[in-house]
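Quick one: structure tokens for this chain, please?
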Amino acid sequence: MARFEEGRSISCPPLFEGEAYSQWSNVMKYFIQAQDFEVWDIIEEGYLEAPKEKKKLRSENDMKAKLNSRAMHILLCGLNEEVSKKVSTCKRHKEMWGKLETIWQRREERCCYIMC
């Protein structure tokens, strides 16, 4: 009889504990896209542009702010406490994602350089 190991949850983001950032960021990207492609767009592009019509401005900004909060929530759920402390002051998900990339990808590159 075959034995199956437990896989990752499709409802919980992958947990980043400070190692293997590149692998985690790829899995997290797909996790976020599976939740909502618009959330991933907010991460990549941010939401700095405002529409020209005042009526539209409120509804579009509200929607984008909601997507930003959703993206930040997903990301924070995927970070352990130590890593979370390093990005908890960020106000936008794009900033948070960039800070993680800056800190952990550099650390990964240095480790790889030392090992090579």
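The chain has one domain: 21-47+56-115.
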